[in-house]
């Protein structure tokens, strides 16, 4: 059984650092991590089943840690995502999400499988030990969501791209304003993620902030600048 | 060494740095179809696909047919006219050759040097 104390204490900053450096090592400063590069990352560390049929379930991805190949988990991605161009951004986020599971959680399972093997655990003990307690699962999912966002929308790329286009202007926008919406659209196009994912990440990074319902000039209006410069 | 046909294809493709999409396009099949083959959800494909896979992945055709559980086309053609007795005789010769009975091949040493 995995317990909370088995999970390494990783802050958001740690996760940002780890996954942004992975992004940078591949893209060499380019903001967009291409989907083929994402697939390649996964195939380097896992067995990728990219067109899996989850049947009637609405599941979009799953990482299976298996004792027979402890170092190479099996990652299943729903064919519904991989084959539907309208779900392209969701597909990318699902790939990144499962990749984060592989990177962050493979070592935990390797140790768990080693422990079970060395103690000669019976089948039912294996089954019980590989069940996740809700608290652990929640924590794993939390860090994986953050890591996936850091991989696809790295803070340094966001800051760099905004600085390139806005110069030294304050590049924050209020939530639920025209500026805020356009900032999200810009991130969505630049990093090829969903509007929802872009919005969450921009909030994390402090570019999208709580404020009045209507757009004000209190913060720099970046909408027109981003529109003028385009999203590339 | 890979066990199944699909595992062999996947492993060789990755070693060559090809994506599933690239290989699927080169061979002329869809990526989901190739993915199903790699994960053992479909039987090994038709002869012409196996030949293309062998060519693109630089794998010996005979080995790919063997792992896929089929017979290379030239052998199939040559054996097309065999009657059951001839088939049995040829296979007996083949089996003997495998165990070193007719055409001697050096046996693998089991002990480490």
Q: How would you describe this protein?
A:
The complex is a heterodimer of chains A (232) and B (113). Chain A is mostly helical. Chain A is built from ten helices and five strands. In chain A, strands 1-3-2 form a three-stranded mixed β-sheet. In chain A, strands 4-5 form a two-stranded parallel sheet. In chain A, helix 4 (88-118) packs across helix 6. Chain A is elongated and about 65 Å long. Chain B has helices at residues 5-15, 20-27, 31-38, 47-57, 61-67, 73-78, 84-98. The radius of gyration of chain B is 17 Å and the shape is elongated. Chain B starts with a helix and ends in a 15-residue tail after the last helix. Residues 108-113 of chain B have low confidence and may be disordered. The interface between A and B is small, with 11 and 10 residues.
What are the defining features of this structure?
heterodimer, A: 232 residues, mainly alpha, two-stranded parallel ribbon, B: 113 residues, 58% helix
Spatial shape of chain B: elongated
Total of helices of chain A: 10
Number of distinct helices of chain B: 7
Question: DSSP strand (E) fraction of chain A?
Answer: 5-15%
Distance between the termini of chain B: 21 Å
The SSE order of chain B reads HHHHHHH
* Oligomeric organization of the protein chains: heterodimer
Q: Residue share in helices of chain B?
A: 55-70%
| Structural Rg of chain A | 20 Å
Which H/E pattern describes the elements of chain A? HHEEEHHHHHEHHEH
Biggest sheet: strand arrangement of chain A:
1-3-2
> Any low-confidence stretches of chain A, pLDDT <50, length ≥5?
none
Let me know the average pLDDT of chain A: 87
Taken from the alpha-carbon principal axes, the silhouette of chain A is: elongated
Largest sheet of chain A: 3 strands, mixed
- Tell me, rounded to a whole number, the average pLDDT of chain B: 87
């Amino acid at each position: 059984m995995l317990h909370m104390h088995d999970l390494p204490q990783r802050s958001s900053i740690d996760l940002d650092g780890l996954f942004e450096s992975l992004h940078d090592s591949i893209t060499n400063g380019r903001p967009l991590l291409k989907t083929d590069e994402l697939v390649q990352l996964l195939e380097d560390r896992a067995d990728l089943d990219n067109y899996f049929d989850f049947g009637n379930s609405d599941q979009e991805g799953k990482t299976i840690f298996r004792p027979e190949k402890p170092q190479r988990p099996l990652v299943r991605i729903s064919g519904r995502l991989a084959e539907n161009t309208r779900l392209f951004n969701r597909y990318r986020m699902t790939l990144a999400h499962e990749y984060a599971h592989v990177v962050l959680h493979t070592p935990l399972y390797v140790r768990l499988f080693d422990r079970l093997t060395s103690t000669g655990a019976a089948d039912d003990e294996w089954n019980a030990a590989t069940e996740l307690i809700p608290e652990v699962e929640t924590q794993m999912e939390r860090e994986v969501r953050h890591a996936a966002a850091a991989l696809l929308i790295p803070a340094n790329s966001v800051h760099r791209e905004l600085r390139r286009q806005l110069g030294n202007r304050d590049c924050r926008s209020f939530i639920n304003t025209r500026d805020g919406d356009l900032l999200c659209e810009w991130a969505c196009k630049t990093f090829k993620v969903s509007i929802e994912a872009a919005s969450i990440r921009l909030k994390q990074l402090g570019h999208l902030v709580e404020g009045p319902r209507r757009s004000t000039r209190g913060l720099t209006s970046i909408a027109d600048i981003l529109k003028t410069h385009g999203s590339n | 060494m890979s066990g199944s046909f699909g595992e062999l294809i996947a492993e060789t493709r990755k070693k060559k740095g090809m994506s599933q999409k690239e290989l699927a396009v080169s061979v002329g099949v869809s990526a989901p179809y190739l993915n199903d083959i790699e994960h053992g959800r479909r039987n090994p494909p038709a002869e012409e696909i196996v030949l293309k896979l062998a060519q693109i992945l630089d794998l010996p055709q005979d080995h790919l047919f063997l792992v896929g559980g089929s017979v290379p086309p030239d052998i199939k053609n040559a054996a097309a006219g065999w009657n059951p007795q001839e088939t049995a005789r040829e296979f007996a010769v083949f089996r003997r050759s495998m165990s070193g009975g007719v055409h001697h091949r050096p046996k693998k040493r089991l002990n480490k040097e």
